[in-house]
Design a protein that fits this description.
mainly alpha; 0% strand; single chain
């Protein structure tokens, strides 16, 4: 046991480096969280559908017409 309090200091340093737990500190109820997540998914799907409908040629960029 020659390390003394080195282990304790290492634990403290490791804990300080760990990111703070984000978890459920947003103050929302589960129902509110579900609504927020559903809205975000709907917006994401709408953006993806708009991109697919409007930018079919611009997606890959491989069809340049050169041979």
């Amino acid at each position: 046991m020659t390390r003394g309090d080195q282990r304790e200091r290492d634990r403290q340093r490791a804990q300080a480096r760990r990111p703070a737990a984000k978890g459920r500190d947003d103050g929302l109820t589960p129902e509110q969280r579900r609504e927020r997540d559903a809205k975000a998914l709907q917006e994401k799907a709408a953006r993806k559908a708009a991109q697919a409908a409007g930018g079919a040629c611009a997606k890959g960029g491989k069809n340049t017409g050169k041979k």
